[in-house]
Amino acid sequence: MDTDQDTNNVEKLTLYWTESQSNTLLFIRTLVRDRHDAEDVLQQTALTIAKRFSDFDQSRPFLPWAIGIARLKVLEHYRRRNRQVLMLETSAIDEIASVCAKHSEERGPWMDALESCLQRITGKSRALIDMRYAQSMGVQKIALKLGTTANTVSNALSRIRVSLRDCVREKLASNHKK
Amino acid sequence: MKPDPHQILQHYLNGEDVSESDIVALSDWIAESPEHAQHLVESAAIDLRLEEIAQESSLRQLLIEDGDVRIVQSVIDEATFRRQINEVHETRLLEQQVKIQEAAKFIANAQGPSIDRGPRVIVIPKTIAWLGLAAILCIIGTLGLLFFSPPPQSPTLAERQPAVTPDKPPAPKPVASVLRVSGADEGSGLFPGTDLVPGRYELKQGFVEVGMLRGASVLVQAPCRFELIDDNQLYLIDGQLTADVPAEARLFTVQTPSMTLVDLGTRFGARVNQDGSSTAAVFRGEVIAKQITTAFDPSDDTQSARVVSHKLITGNAIHASQQEGIDQAPHALQPDHDFLPTWRDLTGRVQITGQARFFVQPPADIGPNALIDPDHMIVFQEQTAVLDAPIRVMTELSNTTRTPTHNTQVPAGTRVISYMLHFSPAEFIPGGGGQGANVRPSSTVSATIQFPGRVLGLISGVEGMAATNESLGLDSVTYVDPNDTVYNCKIDNWPGDGFKIIGDQQNILEIHLGAVVHSDQARVLVEVPAD
To answer: Are A18 and B131 in contact (CB under 8 A)?
Structure first.
């Protein structure tokens, strides 16, 4: 193998992957809800991408190709789990893949906006976020802890998520205008 | 009533149980319009970011650690924190890039026996590094590269803002547990069955086998200090360990002060010396050994990493130190390498129930008055050997006459692991009376021992034992002297003796050893299991 070419490919792969991994992970996490399982799928995806990089047509965008491989790995994951987890239908998976392949937001501003929006959330809502995300508690467990129903917790989390999403959109739009 | 897709979506995102019909309804809704898919992806993105922020909180805690004492210093200012956290991210970015490069290299050299890559300098423009920083947050915890896990009392999202936190933070989650202990000091706090959370541990005596939650078994040999980082990664501060890593724990990582070892499905050993230098040896499979040094060049605003990595394959060893770097190429593992005790134990691991104790470290002497224990027989692994001549063994013992009923030969060329069973219930008193010269209390012990391969048979009797000591025994152990009257070394007509080889794979030995006047010893030959 041509060593220079090899080195060049390795460096290209490094850059492509650095730019694409966050969207690839987002695609996987949208479909594989367990964080550890999702990490495993991401790992498998990264290895396959490295393995098959010589097949990649570098005149085309890398992200859709990476998402395509991640899609196969997600399906493999579902097959391995043998229906222990329910799988979205492939038409839905394809639609999500299509969104993630285009989704190219800059993570920095997004994170900053979310951080800023989080400041607005206080009291019980913040405690809920803390339990769900920082302490990785399930809805049932949170409900038990707060002495309420799972449904109430689920609705509350959903409301917080929607309000955060709206807030982030608003902030990004306002930054864009500036 | 038609299920509400928004309601299902909410349950789905919250990780709640969703029925099959709901999943179908949700799938239909997503497929209906790209906007629906966008809605789901955005919501999932918020989830992901919130988790990342939670992890960032853990990093904050990490940056203000002071040795073993984890203290929250409220005086740390935000700018300092940001700068420090970005430095951590940059290091991770470099690590990630190295990993990708390594993966690509392996693929390019998949058929090669051993790879010496030599040093490589990766130069990453700061702008790209910054773009990648946030991306790296995303994969914190993946690929076994998470340096740090949430420490105890990690500040949570709620703690970053004055807010209501209903309860104190939960206890840290265990990432491993103690599987076995042999001669360990009580002060280590490492007892069989103990759950281990991320943190630092010290073993002053003996051996401890730690089962990582992801599946790797790590046999730690004293004196040793190590820190568990997460369920598939640890930091070896000093001392020695041997790891057995199943496929599901691939990429198990051992960091040392002078190199990082990433498993690719293998069994390997790592040792850190007092001066911080380290040695790694691969007994089976493959390991990446890499040393990364980073430097910032202010003249062109670039961060560079000098990476030297080697792929070690079975029988390779490598040495690294901070001062002299890592060896230019792996070298052959010496047959008498220092990892032998732990390696033997991991490869020849037995599971025992009943009155037997497994010695990881073979005793120096199993002669008269050694290893006296009225309640247990002692089991230890001798060696793996290829028989150069047939060996006569017994595989059955008559229940009535207590005599061997089936003798057979294990043919030359067979690869075996030999184990020694030794039972010595009391001190031998010369001239004490009884049968001839000795008086000892009678005692019988029973145990079930599951070996890693098929039990081919037992060797017993002074002559049989003496004849096989040289080929199957250990040079470091003093064995029975054929002229010594203390032993009968027989599984024989004493009513307490008996054994059965059972199990679908014929790998379980049920054995009873009784002794009055003489101690009992037997050698068990086990077929080397296929990889």
So the answer is: yes
User: pLDDT tens, B302-331?
Assistant: 545 566 788 887 778 899 987 788 888 888
Peptide bond into B223 cis (omega under 30): yes
For residue B182, the tally of other CB atoms under 10 A from its CB is 18
Do residues A17 and A46 touch, judged by C-beta distance below 8 A? yes
User: C-alpha angle B231/B358/B185, rounded to 5°?
Assistant: 65
Q: Residues 138 to 167 of A: which have CB under 8 A from any B CB? A: 138-140, 145-146, 150, 153-155, 157-158, 161, 164-165
Nearest beta carbon to residue B170 from set A119, A133, A135? A135
How far from B481 is each of B132, B390, B475, CA to CA, in Å? Answer: 69, 22, 14
List chain A residues with CB under 8 Å of B153: none
B34 touches chain A (CB under 8 A): yes
ipTM for the whole complex = 0.88
Coil, strand or helix at B196: strand
Distance of alpha carbon B438 from alpha carbon B368, whole angstroms: 12
Q: How far apart are the C-alpha atoms of B468 and B486, rounded to whole Å?
A: 19
Interface test with B, best of A32, A114, A133 (most B CBs within 10 A): A133
B45 CB within 8 Å of a chain A CB: yes
**Distance in angstroms (rounded) separating the CA atoms of residues A174 and A3:** 49
CB atoms within 10 A of CB B109: 15
Instruction: Give tens-digit pLDDT for B437-494.
Output: 444 456 788 999 988 889 999 998 778 888 888 888 887 788 877 666 666 666 765 6
Structure tokens that stand for A65 in this block: 């190709």
Which chain B residues are Cβ-neighbours of A46 within 8 angstroms? 99-100, 103, 143
To the question of pTM greater than 0.90 for the whole model, the response is no
B169 touching A, CB under 8 A? Answer: yes
Helix axes B34-63, A150-177, angle to 10 degrees: 90
B324 contact A CB<8A: no
Using DSSP, how many helices (H) and how many strands (E) does chain B show?
8, 27
CA B382 – CA B344 distance, rounded (Å):
8
* pLDDT digits 0-9 by tens, A117-169: 888 777 778 788 888 887 778 888 888 888 888 888 888 888 888 888 888 88
- Interface size A-B, in CB pairs within 8 Å, comes to 221
How far apart are the C-alpha atoms of B9 and B23, rounded to whole Å? Answer: 9
Strand partners, B408: B393
Q: Which residues of A59-85 are buried (b: 16+ CB within 10 A; e: fewer)?
A: eeebbebbbebbbebbeebbeeeeeee
Quickly list DSSP for B489-514.
----SSTT-EEEEESTTS-EEEEEEE
